[in-house]
Each structure stands twice: as structure tokens, then as C-alpha cells.
Design a protein that fits this description.
Blueprint: H1 5-14, H2 17-26, E1 33-35, H3 40-46, E2 48-55, E3 62-68, H4 75-83, E4 90-94, H5 101-115
Antiparallel strand pairs: 1-2, 2-3, 3-4
Length: 116
């Protein structure tokens, strides 16, 4: 069956986008966790996480990557994470100097739908 877009939309709606985009601008390494903070409660109840992706050297824009958590409550998310917790379920390119929460939210959902 696979991960449903409803669970992704629920997660994306909870993301404090301005803080996440700001944190992405300050994160040093690709793969650094941006949100939520790493603990078993967050990983379980929120099902997903956002990590820093690549940085565009020309524009300074940064990818934010959506990934599944291994101990997610949602059985489909958990199954996907057990298979490959580093799989990119969706991604969005953001400008840390001009954060646009609504644009980031909708672009990440669209990216998820394209990939899944």
C-alpha cells in the first residue's frame, strides 16, 4: 500500500517552518536533523523527520528532506523506514534568507506525491 499523503500532510502542518528554515541555514552538514529534535516520543508520534539536504552553491538555497522514522506509530511509515530510513520521501528547496513557510509546506507535499 505505502505511506498515505494524509499522514505526510498531518506532519507537514505541525512543522514550525520559519524555525526549520532558519536552522537549515545554520546547519553544517548534509543529513543533520532539523526537526523534530531526536527522541523516541517525537520519532514515534510525528512519524517523520526533516533533515538538511544539499546546498546550492550558486543561490545558497538549501534542500530540506522528508524521511520516515523507524519507530513511527503509523504502520506504513514504520514499514518504509525499516526498509530504508534514509530514503528521501520528499524534498523542498528553501531560501534561508527569505523563508516562506506556506511555499515550503505545499512544495514538500507536492514532492512527496510525485515520488510516492
Amino acid at each position: 500500500m505505502g505511506i498515505g499523503s494524509k499522514s505526510v500532510k498531518t506532519f507537514v502542518a505541525k512543522v514550525p517552518w520559519s524555525k526549520v528554515i532558519e536552522k537549515a541555514g545554520g546547519a553544517k552538514d548534509r543529513g543533520d536533523r532539523l526537526w523534530p529534535s531526536r527522541n523516541s516520543k517525537n520519532d514515534s508520534t510525528l512519524n517523520f523527520r526533516l533533515d538538511k539536504g544539499s546546498t546550492d552553491s550558486k543561490t545558497g538555497n538549501i534542500e530540506i528532506i522528508l524521511q520516515a522514522n523507524k519507530n513511527a506509530e503509523d504502520p506504513e511509515v514504520k514499514k518504509a523506514a525499516q526498509k530504508d530510513s534514509d530514503a528521501i520521501l520528499g524534498k523542498v528547496l528553501v531560501d534561508p534568507k527569505k523563508p516562506n513557510a506556506e511555499e515550503a509546506r505545499s512544495a514538500l507535499i507536492a514532492s512527496f506525491k510525485e515520488r510516492n
